[in-house]
Description:
CATH class: Mainly Alpha
Distance between the termini: 38 Å
Number of domains: 1
Order of helices and strands: HHHHHH
Number of strands: 0
Largest sheet: none
CATH architecture: Orthogonal Bundle
Strand content: under 5%
Amino acid sequence: MKGVWVGAGLILALVCQTTLVPEVGGAGAPVDLVLVVVIGVAITGGPLAGMWTGAVGGLLQDGLSGGVIGVGGLVKTLVGHAAGQVGAYFMVTRSWHQFLVFFFGSVAHAGCFIGIYSLLSTTKPMSSYRAVLIQAAINAVLGVIMAIGLQVAPSVLARRRLRRRWPTR
């Protein structure tokens, strides 16, 4: 059942990444929603879940972006595994811990992505340290918001079900 929710999260992230994010933030929107989902799944599910989510999400994102297919899948697989290892060995329960994992996962993703693209093509990848840090900060904030929402949602839904069952007079 968890796989269905992860798949739904990936599809929602891909749809938002390809349709809403360019409209809201312009052509150079500094956010990677698929990476946020990959790191979030890796923190809660471990390295294997992070690897699979990263591989599938990265390949789907590569297919939709028009770039070299496989680079995003490889990089997101590596970052998913690393974030899963961090989540397995450390207690990543507080918001600032999650912020750090999302932030450094995004920085590692950008570094690996730029490094692999520089090996594959002769053109220099267009990115700066400032752009990488801005994207990492935005990804980290969205990741923490997603994590808090996923922690609060079950109790809110349970309270809502109880209110429907026992109406107050």
